[in-house]
Amino acid sequence: AxxxxxxxxxxxxxxxxxxxxxxxxRSWMNLADFQTRHRAYTxxxxxxxxxxKLRRALKDGTPNNxxxxxxxxxxxxTLAELTLLxxxxxxxxxxxxxxxxxxxxxVASGAFLEQxxxxxxxxxxxxxxxxxxxxxxxxxxxxxxxxxxxxxALVDRFLTDALAKSRDPKYRFQRG
Length: 176
What we know:
- This protein is an all-alpha fold.
- It has six helices and no strands.
- Helix 1 (11-37) runs antiparallel to helix 2 and helix 2 runs antiparallel to helix 3 (66-86).
- The chain starts with 10 loop residues before the first helix and ends in a 10-residue tail after the last helix.
């Protein structure tokens, strides 16, 4: 695998390097999605883990970039889900996936707080957080019923709100 330099000499080179890392992480996640569709969960998890390393570096290098934070949070949720899929047929250990989901919620909450004025980014942050909450509720359904119910209530509120706003013309999102 090609290695992208950590430091670029000029701001333009830095921006190009960041964009390359961002696109490379997206490619690794596309591969993970393909592998998941073909039930190759172990290799999908490896691909998602490679993307995660790139996304962590992007977020660490530019901590206030909402897009980087949301992609990292989404990646963490996917990795938690792949860990569970990989464990199918064996006793599941929810500790690892729960830690990933808690981190995803923390990262996505930060992005949400920083971008409250941007409607599309705010919606994406809520979407990412609620994907993590839904999976966490599934994991906690037997072990911590009150917490699972609280997560599901937040997911339900998000979906109800999103449906109502989808019918309101002032909240129409531009596709892009």
